[in-house]
Every structure is written in structure tokens, then in C-alpha cells.
Design a protein that fits this description.
single chain, alpha+beta, Phosphorylase Kinase, domain 1, 5-stranded antiparallel sheet, 6 helices, about 30% helix, binds cytidine-5'-monophosphate
Amino acid sequence: MPETLLYEGKAKRVFATDDEAVLLHRYKDDATAYNAQKRGSWKDKGRTNATMSAAMFTYLEANGVPSHFVEQVDETTIKTKKLTMLPVEVVVRNLAAGSLSRLLGFEEGRRLKAPIVELCYKNDALGDPLLNWHHFRELGVSDEDLEFCEELGLRVNGILAPFFDERGVTLVDFKIEVGRDADGQLMLADEISPDTCRFWDKETGERLDKDRFRRDLGGMEEAYAEMLRRVTGRPSAI
Ligand code: C5P
């Protein structure tokens, strides 16, 4: 099947095929952090992100949350529906960490009274800033779409937090994205992986996610492999 490169990002390449309704997301072993100021790469990162995303989208679908996911094509590639993306990054948090700790002066690990949803503007040049609804209206994103984003974020959290808890992992926070299909239906998109979630081992507090890279903790390959094992019970889901 002929493939046309549509987009090359930090951690993946997206291809169009002769089926106009779908895209191929090929995950790379490369990573960047702090808006591409820090770069790195580790073995099997792409495989983990593709395989874990496939497993999580399948689990969410089984729990009533439709997404762009169609199938896993090979170890590092997933096939998705082609969507028109909202310029929104939906972050959901259960414990304070990262930018929320900085925003509110909270110690990392403080449990929040209730999950907090944040809507950020997907814009690399601006560093994906946290916006309010007034800003999004100005950008042409409707209140209805923002409401969908917030509700979807909380629903996904309600399904994934217990899923990871049963596997000995605290879901500290995560980021998802939302897009609209050809029928106008909004749905979950992007990926669900240690690149886009904070995962802490419930017993030891060990970081099992991209913070190992962001914070120079080392052990990225082992942490990603451990998350894949906890989710799929084996090194690969296919
Ligand atoms: O950095 P911050 O604390 O705002 O990140 C919150 C969550 O969103 C983390 O799980 C992080 O991995 C994810 N995130 C992301 N992509 C971004 C910003 C944050 O996946 N551009």
C-alpha cells in the first residue's frame, strides 16, 4: 500500500494511505521534552507507545468510549480514523505533579480533592499554554466542544485510574486529544502511553513514565518495558 508522509513529529510519523478515511501512526524511539529543547532516544519506546495505546483504546472502546483507533498494524504502528483535530490538549489530574505543582505551589504527590481537568492550547510555538473558555471562544472553539473535552477527560480517567490501580500503578495525570470524524462525531484521539501519562508505582512511588527522561533519572527503557508488561502481561500485545 503506498504511503505518503503527512507529518513528522517528535515521537511519531503520520502517513496517509490510499484509503482516505484512515491514517497510519508510526511511533519512533525518539523523544523530546521541554518543547524540543531536550532530545533523546531509547530502545522499544515506539513499540511500547504503539502497543500500549492499542491496548488502552481497545479497553476504553469496550467500556463505551469510542476513539480513532482502528487496529495495530505492526509492533510500532497503529491505524486510526482520520479526524479533524480540535486545537486542545485535555489534561486530567488525580495527584499534583509537574505544571500543576508549579501553578498552585502544591507538593508533588498531593492527592487532589477531585480530579482536575485542564484545557491547553495545542500550539508548540506558544508552549501549549493553559487557557480558559474565553480564550478558546476567541480561537473559535465552541463551548459545546469544550464541554465534550472535559466530560471525555473525566470519563477516561474514571475508566483508566482503576485499570492501572489494579496493576499496581497510580495514574497521576494524563493528556488526551479530541477530533471530529467525517460524520461530525467528536471522539478520543492521539495516544495513551508513558509519553502522555504520569504513572507511579503504587508501592515504591517509582516513576514509570517520560518523567524519567525529562528529569534525567535514567532507566527509561526499563520503565517503559515495565508499563507494557503491567498493561498487556507480556512484552508485546501482538
Ligand atoms: O507538564 P504537565 O504537568 O502539565 O503534564 C501533565 C500531563 O500531561 C503529563 O502526564 C504529561 O505527560 C502530559 N502532557 C503531554 N503533552 C504535553 C503536555 C503534557 O502528554 N504537551
